[in-house]
Amino acid sequence: MTNPVQGTQVVGRVASLLRLVGRKPEGSSLAGLVRESGLTRPTVHRLLASLAAEGLLDHDARTGNWILGPEIFLLGSVAAARFPFEDIARPSLRRLAEETGESAFYSIRRGQEAVCVMREEGSFPVRSFVLHEGVRFPFGVASAGTAIMAFLPDEEQEAILSNWDQHAGTFAAGHREDVVRRNLELTRLHGYAVNPGLVFEGSWGMGAAVFDQQGRPVGALSLTGIEPRFRPERQELLGKLLMEEAHRMSARLPAERVTQPA
Description:
alpha+beta, Arc Repressor Mutant, subunit A, 8 strands, about 20% strand, 10 helices, two-stranded antiparallel ribbon, globular
């Protein structure tokens, strides 16, 4: 008889690997997945091979990277009907990109992370490539995650901050707890978050939270670009545009949330 704990552990490992592979369009190398997952090389290789046999992953012979497979696309196409981001978020992303020239993004809340699910490229020729579909940032890191976290109940925020280094992981060094607390305070004060190049030097971002009908933050709109495009004299305009579009999206969300924290 299969040990249920062991079976649950395998599911968790598989889910973790799928998320890691999905963070980058070009996929990840075996060595990178071993390092990020914390699993042994034989275990990772065995799970990757099994996922590839089911069509959930592919192995790129040219780069050696593991990438998402066709079954993921098919499953995502079916699931898309439950998460109408295209109808609700795309108009706001287009307006933001057209009015600002910056790249615009929509991220959703998943557990204690903000996950980018959509983007609209801006017209400004110099761009930041820190954010794209599938990228996950812990709450309090980057503008979308900060915008969401700032409007969580106080006890949820304190639970995250009390375990900050573990929560932030590799981002903790560039995001000291006192800096994060100050960013959260400023976000609540102004209504929008500013990431002053903390994730990647020279790459700035701003974000505004999207709320469900119960007033809970379920996602965030954000703009990213190079530092000169986010000078203080322009931040007020960008923040105003972000909050206007976030309000429009919040008003359009159905009674049943389009995403559930997990």
